[in-house]
Amino acid sequence: MEKIIGIVGIPPLEIIRQINEEQGKIIDLDEPQLPLPMNRETHLPQVYCAILRTVMLNAMNMRLDRVYIDVGPGKCDCALHVATVLQNFLTIPVITTRNQDSEGVGYPICRSNLPLIEKLQAITQGVQSCEPSPQYPPTVPTAGFWGVPPRDFALLSLFPNSTHVYGWTRCMENKTPADIELESSCNPAVPTVFFAQSFCAKTALAKHLAELHPKGLYVDCDVNAGSSARAKIEAFLELSRDTLTASTAPVASTDNGSSGDDHAAG
Amino acid sequence: MLLADFGTSYTKLFTMAEESEPRIVPTRELGSTFMADLATGHNAKRRGRESVNELIALAKGGQGLIAEPDAVLLDCGSRDIKFIRYAGV
């Protein structure tokens, strides 16, 4: 009978290879898998990374045979503690890994002309395979998306197809999730949105890189991308495009006192 | 053509070619079916036949009104603060 294996973060390639060999079905627990409201998850604090709350929601409500959860430098300390919670509540094996894979396989999808949603869907799907991404012709970037795959992929619909992907998502495609140098790289010539999930440790790096970048915008969102975050990104991309020819460069922002769980702004 | 800025507390209305000054009305006094031809603000997508991102409207509208190349334009709303920084080059 087919084994159903949950993964959190990116387990080492050796683990993925083993699962593929035993023809197990991989479920990415970082992504929403069930039509359940987030408030059904009660084991973690409400003020916590929405990705890891999604992990708990999935793991507690799905039939799984075992779980691999990466807790190394390619994931985060929060995952280490979530692993403890999962080990205490689940009766199946919850196996922690520390992915230190360092042999890059390339990131053609990050530089392709696919719509940004399709890019991130393909990259997150690619985690289930040991194979590199298929080759795509690179496009000239007009925008950049730096960060992790967001909990709410609707955010990605605001970007043009010529958006290049940077940050941890690029590390995912390269199959080197702990490569901090690759994660920190971006293109200073390209207007770039630096995105992190609210309450994630990566918010510090995202904000720092956005401050260093000549055309950077820092955005963090919790469960859903609210209208303020969407308005900021939309305006940033359009005004950045305009300033390629304008002599005066407007920079737009909103501040509604929110830590990033943006709701409608008036 | 009716232009509108649908803010959380107040709505600013201006009928082109008919009015010389915008009208300001409390948003709660608008009927639920009230629509504008072109709208911006918090409820623009719901109440406008076409809508413009509120930050883009603020940036482009301000650019036409402010002569200074270096300026900060501040919009203090009831629920948030928006600002545009014009960085003169």
Give the tags:
heterodimer, A: 266 residues, alpha/beta, four-stranded parallel beta sheet, 8 helices, 32% helix, globular, B: alpha/beta, five-stranded mixed beta sheet, two-stranded antiparallel ribbon
What does this structure look like?
The complex is a heterodimer of chains A (266) and B (89). Chain A is of the alpha/beta class and 266 residues long. In chain A, 32% of the residues lie in helices and 18% in strands. In chain A, β1 (4-8), α1 (13-21) and β2 form a beta-alpha-beta unit. In chain A, α2 runs parallel beside α3 and α4 packs across α5. In chain A, 47% of the residues are buried. Chain B has helices spanning 44-47, 54-65; strands at 2-6, 10-15, 23-26, 36-41, 48-51, 71-76, 81-88. The model of chain B has no long low-confidence stretch (mean pLDDT 92). With 89 residues, chain B is α/β, with parallel strands linked by helices. Chain B is 18% helix and 44% strand. Chain B is globular and about 40 Å long. In chain B, the strands form two sheets. Chain B has a five-stranded mixed sheet with strand order 3-2-1-4-5. In chain B, β4 (36-41), α1 (44-47) and β5 form a beta-alpha-beta unit. Chain A binds chain B through residues 227-228, 231-232, 234-235, 238-239, 247-257, 264-266, and chain B through 7-9, 41-42, 53-56, 58-59, 62-63, 69, 77-89. β9 (248-255) of chain A pairs antiparallel with β7 of chain B, so a sheet runs across the interface.
